[in-house]
Amino acid sequence: MKISARNRLKGTIIEVTKGATTAHVRIDVGGSIVTASITNESVDELQLKVGNTAYAVVKASDVMVAID
């Protein structure tokens, strides 16, 4: 499958935690952890497991900057 998004971060799944309907998937991307909230159904369809290689695909229409 190809995807048009350019914000793809390749990493290793370090944790998959399923809830009632939503799962949290944590991906180690070069020492930084990215957490995605996806459906349990998607976890099952993609067969996501700890140790698998995966991409965090980021789609953002805005990026904000803040200071204290």
UniProtKB/TrEMBL annotation:
Residues 2-67 form the Mop domain. PROSITE patterns: MOP (PS51866). It comes from the Bacteria. Keywords: Molybdenum. SUPFAM superfamilies: MOP-like. The keyword Membrane does not apply. GO terms for biological process: molybdate ion transport. The keyword Cytoplasm does not apply. Gene3D superfamilies: 2.40.50.100. Pfam families: TOBE. InterPro entries: Mo/tungstate-bd_C_term_dom, Mop_domain, Transp-assoc_OB_typ1. This is Molybdopterin-binding protein.
